[in-house]
Automatic annotation (TrEMBL):
The keyword tRNA processing does not apply. S-adenosyl-L-methionine binds at Q250, F277, E297, D345. GO terms for biological process: methylation. The active site is at C371, C371 (nucleophile). GO terms for molecular function: methyltransferase activity. This is RNA methyltransferase. Belongs to the class I-like SAM-binding methyltransferase superfamily. RNA M5U methyltransferase family. SUPFAM superfamilies: Nucleic acid-binding proteins, S-adenosyl-L-methionine-dependent methyltransferases. It comes from Bosea rubneri.
Length: 418
């Protein structure tokens, strides 16, 4: 903190996008982590940020955090918000950003997609004076907060901290910081280690032995399988899918289900659907229960996982899958003409190149699943300019207690519009 730090009373006017309380002062906005609207707080200010020293008048919406590490660990920012305040804060993030391009659009209250909790976690590990430490990064700092348990994780990850600690100890010869990504699959824990150099034979033996001892389903380094004792899998509709090591998965099983339900509800009459940015197929498999699906995805391993699972699944309509970079090679007009609905679920950057082609297409309905409201708003503006109407926006909250929010937007083009 600088020598200019001041101790003063601040009144919190609203919540910012990241969950900080925001006070309006004569010097401009001041961001106050863990303070709530309506509260008066005594705080130490440093520039445009302030730390609470004492809450003078607590908000009626303040609740007790569920985790003793809350405020130290950088993973959660919102455990102190009561349910109503929390849901409205998340909804407003969508309303505010989207309002710039689609002012009148109805944004529904967020759907709670936490379910039984997050099915994937990444622990950081690094050497400290007393040995290897595993944990999460503290907020706005390079400090590591030691974590022995995390209440937002699904029950299948209950032993993830001790697994991460054991593996970090085994890898402790390296001074490099490591990331240990652990996923709870139906066949047990699926671990991908990043940050370590390539595994030589000796290290592979050590890790294979550790996987036995920890009863892991699979252990990989940088996406390269070291040992697969049981194929990890996830049930997606009528398919059992084994994603590539470290491959993308929605954060919670409930989130994946809810997103798929919203997508399916948007296209009740579709017969031929393009699933863009399809990953290993969570939407494709559910769509294929009633329509023909063509999946496009740039990650070859994900496409192979989808194809393998499709070849084994029973009772589905045909699913074709193609490895394709949709930023560089979006589907063009004549290709889009083969579909009566398009689903897209791009990474945070959005799908500008693809959406430019979609905007000029005649595809009657587009279900856009987004993990970044900023890029969604930019892409939505292109679709609106192309003659689509944004019918509905449903925020989906898979990342409970974080500032993150996802959404499904349904766009429809009236018949006859070009
Ligand atoms: C948010 S994930 C969604 C995946 C899948 N729909 C799901 O629900 O699991 C985004 C996907 O886009 C893929 N992707 C990223 N860049 C891409 C690109 N340029 N072209 C095609 N796919 C891309 C990623 O590999 C990832 O699978």
């Amino acid at each position: 903190m600088s020598a200019l730090a001041m101790n003063e009373t601040l009144t919190i006017a609203r919540l910012g996008q990241r969950g900080d309380g925001v006070a309006e002062t004569t010097d401009g906005q001041v961001f106050v982590p863990f303070a709530l609207p309506g509260e008066s707080v005594r705080a130490v200010r440093d520039g445009e940020r302030a730390q609470v020293v004492e809450i003078l008048t607590p908000s009626a919406s303040r609740i007790a955090a569920i985790c003793p590490l809350f405020t130290r660990c950088g993973g959660c920012v919102a455990q102190h918000m009561g349910e109503g305040l929390y849901a409205e804060w998340k909804r407003q993030q969508v309303v505010t950003t989207l309002g710039r391009v689609a002012a009148g659009v109805a944004v529904e209250p967020p759907l709670d997609a936490h379910g039984t909790g997050r099915r994937r976690v990444t622990f950081h590990a690094r050497r400290e004076e007393d040995g290897m430490r595993i944990g999460f990064m503290a907020a706005r700092s390079h400090d590591l907060v030691a974590v022995e348990a995390c209440p937002v994780l699904a029950p299948g990850l209950a032993r993830a901290p001790s697994v991460a600690q054991h593996l970090a100890n085994r890898l402790g010869g390296s001074n490099k910081p490591l990331d240990l990504q652990i996923t709870a699959s139906e066949a047990g824990l699926d671990v991908d280690i990043r940050g370590h150099g390539p595994a030589g034979n000796a290290l592979r033996r050590t890790l294979t032995e550790a996987a036995e001892r920890l009863d892991l389903a699979r252990l990989s380094m940088h996406g390269d399988t070291v040992v697969e004792r049981r194929a990890p899998f996830h049930v997606m509709g009528k398919a059992a899918v084994t994603p590539g090591p470290g491959g993308f998965l929605q954060a919670t099983a409930r989130g994946e289900e809810l997103l798929a339900e919203l997508v399916l509800a948007a296209l009740p009459k579709a017969k031929r659907v393009a699933d863009l940015f399809a990953g290993c197929g969570p939407f494709s498999f559910r769509l294929a229960e009633r329509c023909h699906v063509t999946a496009f995805e740039s990650d070859k391993t994900a496409v192979q996982a989808l194809q393998r699972a499709a070849s084994r699944a029973q009772g589905l309509k045909p699913i074709a899958a193609e490895t394709r970079d949709l930023f560089r090679r979006p589907l063009l007009e004549h290709e889009l003409a083969a579909f009566d609905a398009v689903v897209l679920d791009p990474p945070r950057a959005g799908a500008e190149a693809q959406v430019r082609w979609l905007a000029g297409s005649k595809v009657p309905v587009v279900a856009y699943v987004s993990c970044d409201v900023g890029s969604f708003a930019r892409d939505a503006a292109l679709l609106l300019a192309g003659g689509y109407a944004l019918e509905r926006v449903t925020p989906v909250d898979q990342f409970r207690y974080s500032a993150h929010i996802e959404l499904v937007g349904v766009f429809r083009k009236a018949a006859g519009r070009k």
